[in-house]
Amino acid sequence: MKIWISAQALLLLVATSAAAQVEPGFFDRFQTRFGLVEVVGGENQRTIAVNGQVLPLEPNFSYNILGAWGLADAAQDWVFVQAHHGGNMCGPGLTVLRISQAAIEVLGTLDDCTGFPFDTRIYPDAIELDIYDDGFQADYTTYLFDSAGASQLAVAGVFAAPVAAGPGADATRWIGAHPYDPFRDASERARFLTIMTEDQIYDLAGRIGPADSVIQRGDWVLGAGCQAHACDTSRGVWGIRISDGVPAAAVLDEGQAPVAYGAAALDPVFSAWIGENGL
Q1: Radius of gyration of the chain measured on its C-alpha atoms
Q2: Is 169-276 a domain of CATH 3.40.50.1370?
Q3: I want to staple 59 with a disulfide (CB 3.0 to 4.6 A). Which of 7, 45, 75, 272 is the partner?
């Protein structure tokens, strides 16, 4: 059972341990059960204070308070905050604070570019965060925060599902989606593993940033895109033949011949797709 007790979404769970699907907020001030968390400091020197006590965090361009979670019968709240340097690149991962009546503790900060957890497990004296390792949402790392600080508990997940996606609706489900989306699906990664290695699939997906939606052309579902900030030099295309579910793919680099994968890449429809998206 979950009880929401604050307009700022302090989530309390009444079991002795519980899992929470959490969504980040972006707050300058946040009231926990044990005190006020707030962003303080001047320009480019922002940091975090709890009940007026400035924490030993590195000042930065900005800070956000992402939220607070805890067990209703436990004596602490877990607070997520995150800094940013103000530039285009991603900043540090989130920092976990443990706040109780007795102490205010900074338990640790995750590495730069670490995303927000997709699953969180809260215990009386610890919290675990599951965070995807990349945009494929295939492999993830579990981080543990407790009195010892932050630690990497496990690396989990698998790249491919045992069964590859098939023909028909398995292919046409992507029409209208972003061309990167199939690579987040384990059965589609398994499909493309029949013509490519894992590294080659990562390379292809990395070339599909800015893009139009997936289209259907005859017996084919087709996707294409370019590498973010390098659209004039690096592109990727893929296709799935609807009738038999056979995939094809190609990567394109400026001044070089396309590198195609899969016998179906010779199909006239897919060959034309490569030509349309050439550099």
Answers
A1: 23
A2: no
A3: 45
